[in-house]
Design goal:
Neutral Protease, domain 2, Immunoglobulin-like, 23 strands, 2 domains, globular, alpha+beta
Length: 498
């Protein structure tokens, strides 16, 4: 039996013609004042979330100017970045991640110019050319800022490439995931420039503010993180999109001339589903799944702060991948009638990442379970809310317990709280995606539903726009239930002990 949540919503379904029509989000923010540099970003946030911009202490600000050459599959651009040292000690260097240079990606990013506070600066490439190292001529003091300018070009691979086929120029879509130079997180361990295996997520970064100008051929529609606040016809068969997004951990871009669009409005958020015309039935289904799971997660976790969420059908082989304000779902899941249950599971899982990774951040490279295991269990919450407790039990058994038990029976049991690099690809799935969610099920049974769901709300609110670590999950849960969860944590997260 499908359960309906007491949720105030308005739903509007729109399906575009064969050439999609750009969706322009109206600017609802107050008129800017000369000293209000945050005003432009409010257009991308719901009314209740607009004051959240003030919560971000000295954010990194990206101003990106980009242009896409479809004939040559090249993205060219420049970025101006203002970066604050929020550490207690001076910084002698700054790093940028160049994920388009990931080994075997098939693409390449080349930085052609770098200036630091207006002066030409030198740099070198490290970690298989995925980390651009910028030595500073003078230390950057705590609380001080520096302005960096970079010019770059990105050669986009055509057709299938890389491990998950997620960065490419295909017939239906050009997928550009975090291809601009991105400053990684700096924490007690220093700069995080380690390179995870190809089956793990790449980004570990703090939330930043994005102001993006992107010029594309006039027959292309831009699907990106944040909200489009303006489109200019340049009169030369190109359009320039003005996009803003904040606070966001990275920025994703997809371009299309072919994908159709269906939309739903929930509260102040527009949910868009983009899909191939041949897959229209499941394209509309993806919108329904995204809308239903969105309502579940708002009810169970907390309010989604952004005005837009896009679900995009792409040729990725990963099942699904999350980005701020955007999730991509594998084309083969739309096309294969035998995978419809997993199609729904994968879509809801990726939507849940808007809460776990998007708003509540984590170190996806070294603590991947913090978002992935919780996103898995969040999908169970959606399934049982939508279809009843028996469906939740089926998900628990099929997606978690059976997956983990197969690995355990083969002698591959392992602690969940390890970096991606500690696992083989198959063990990563079994332990992080199978065993990890069983921790949340165990503490739910011990705490009871009322306190468990209060824990998730407390966790979301406590670490909103921050970075959460494993100990933060445990402490928030124990604070909520006023009980010890050490045995469950040891059994499912830190065990088995060797």
């Amino acid at each position: 039996m499908t359960k309906r949540l007491p949720f105030c919503l308005v739903i509007l379904f729109i399906v575009t013609a064969c050439t999609p029509v750009p969706n322009v989000t109206p600017t609802l923010a107050p008129s800017p004042t000369p000293t209000d540099e945050n005003a432009i970003y409010r257009a991308a946030l719901t009314t209740a979330a607009q004051n959240d911009l003030a919560l971000i202490d000295r954010p990194t600000r990206y101003n990106l100017t980009l242009a896409y050459d479809a004939a040559n599959a090249v993205l060219s651009g420049s970025e101006d970045v203002r970066y604050f040292n929020r550490q207690t000690a001076p910084l002698n260097e700054i790093y940028f991640r160049l994920f388009a240079n990931y080994p075997d990606s098939g693409g390449k990013i080349s930085v052609t110019q770098l200036t630091v506070d207006g002066a030409t600066a030198t740099f070198d490439l490290q970690v298989k050319d995925t980390a651009l190292h910028v030595p500073l001529s003078k230390p950057l003091a705590p609380n001080a800022s520096v302005n960096l300018h970079l010019d770059f070009t990105v050669a986009v691979p055509r057709g299938k490439n890389g491990h998950y086929n997620d960065f490419l120029a295909a017939d239906s879509v050009v997928a550009l995931p975090s291809v601009y130079p991105l400053i990684p997180a700096y924490d007690s361990q220093g700069w995080h420039i380690e390179l995870p295996p190809p089956y793990g997520d790449l980004v570990y970064a703090d939330v930043s503010f994005y102001n993006v100008t992107l010029t594309v051929p006039s027959n292309m529609v831009v699907i990106a993180s944040g909200s489009t606040v303006g489109i200019q016809d340049n009169g030369n068969n190109t359009n320039t999109f003005k996009i803003v997004g904040a606070p966001m951990r990275d920025f994703d871009i997809n371009l299309t001339t072919q994908l159709q669009k269906a939309s739903a409005i929930v509260g102040e958020t527009t949910i868009n589903a983009y899909f191939d015309l041949a897959d229209a039935a499941n394209g509309k289904k993806s919108l329904q799944i995204a809308t239903d799971s969105f309502k579940t997660f708002v009810n169970r976790f907390g309010d989604y702060p952004y005005r837009e969420l896009d679900v995009v059908e792409t040729p990725t082989t990963a099942g699904g991948i999350e980005y701020p304000g955007v999730v991509v779902i594998a084309r083969n899941l739309y096309e294969d009638p035998r995978q419809q249950d997993y199609f729904e599971f994968a879509t809801a899982h990726e939507v849940s990442h808007q809460w776990w990774y998007g708003v509540v951040g984590d170190d996806q490279v070294n603590d991947p379970w913090v978002d992935e295991s919780l996103a898995q269990y969040s999908t169970l919450i959606y399934e049982e809310n939508q279809y009843g407790a028996s469906r939740g039990n089926t998900v628990l058994k099929s997606y978690f317990t059976n997956l983990y038990n197969r690995a355990k029976d083969q002698g591959h049991d392992a602690a969940v709280n390890q970096p991606v690099a500690a696992f083989s690809e198959s063990d990563y799935g079994a332990i992080v995606y199978g065993k990890g969610p069983l921790f949340f099920d165990a503490i739910r049974k011990k705490m009871g539903d009322d306190k468990f769901f209060q824990f998730l709300k407390n966790y979301f609110e406590r670490y909103r726009y921050k970075t959460a670590f494993p100990a933060d999950i445990l402490k928030t849960a124990e604070d909520t239930c006023a009980c010890s969860l050490q045995s469950e944590y040891q059994q499912w997260i830190t065990g088995p002990q060797k």
